[in-house]
Amino acid sequence: xxxxxxxxxxxxxxxxxxxxxxxxxxxxxxxxxxxxxxxxxxxxxxxxxxxxxxxxxxxxxxxxxxxxxxxxxxxxxxxxxxx
Length: 83
Description:
The protein is mainly alpha-helical. The two termini are 35 Å apart. The chain is 67% helix and 0% strand. The model has no long low-confidence stretch (mean pLDDT 83). The chain has one domain (3-76).
């Protein structure tokens, strides 16, 4: 799923889509430690996904600001290198 689709899903559902890893662990005494480690890693991955979405949104806003500033500069200084 791309970032835009993931962002839309998150906005609509207020949570990340279920992971293929979630719920597929057997909770027995031999694998309990591994299961806890995997859930911890999954939680960290979800946090990173949210952070990436936040950075992507900030990046879009900054790109829009740059384009607006370019338009202003090019209006007054069409010979400028950025025009």
